[in-house]
Amino acid sequence: MGDQPLTKKAKKEIILEYNKTLARFGQHFGRSYGWAIEYLKNLSPRFVNLEDAAETAWMRSHYKFASYNVHASSKSLSINMDTFGGFGWPIAGASNAGLREPGQNAATTILKITYLLMKNLRSLDNVILMDGLINLRDEAIEKFDDADYMLAEDEAGIRDAVTDFEIEVDTRMI
After folding, report:
1. Phi and psi of 7, rounded to 5°?
2. What is the 3-state secondary structure (H, E, C) of 46-93?
3. Which of 20, 36, 42, 108 has the fewest beta carbons under 10 Å from its own?
4. 10 Å Cβ neighbour count for 21?
């Protein structure tokens, strides 16, 4: 990808830190979702186990739908979120289309995780902190809505310009 390879020293430091982490939390920590093994009482946890434990399995369809453009599958061939206005013209290359709902859900999830990690939920400092984080979450949700609206407006303008150009070209050919 054009990046410089890690130096031998950097690789050794990473391996040393990795081994320290395994020594601290146990060998299972090195496995996929190893951090959840103790809580879930499952030596081979999967994402679905985390969803069930967090009681968020109802979000699975949202997560899968948001993943179609990122992870190849038979569904991703027929469902393309990167189209606008029902034209069915896929966007080629990188795009910020289709990020409204995943971004809003990420903001909400980060807030929930922060709340769960707080030690003293009754301290005034933490109440003020959570109030500020709730405001940030609400602002992020609004900004994702705004960005989605602006993207749709820009795309509509481009589509109109293309349609006008196509009509102009057609009339010249007559």
Report:
1. -75, 160
2. CHHHHHHHHCCHHHHHHHHHHHCCCCCCHHHHHCCCCCCCCCCCCCCC
3. 20
4. 13
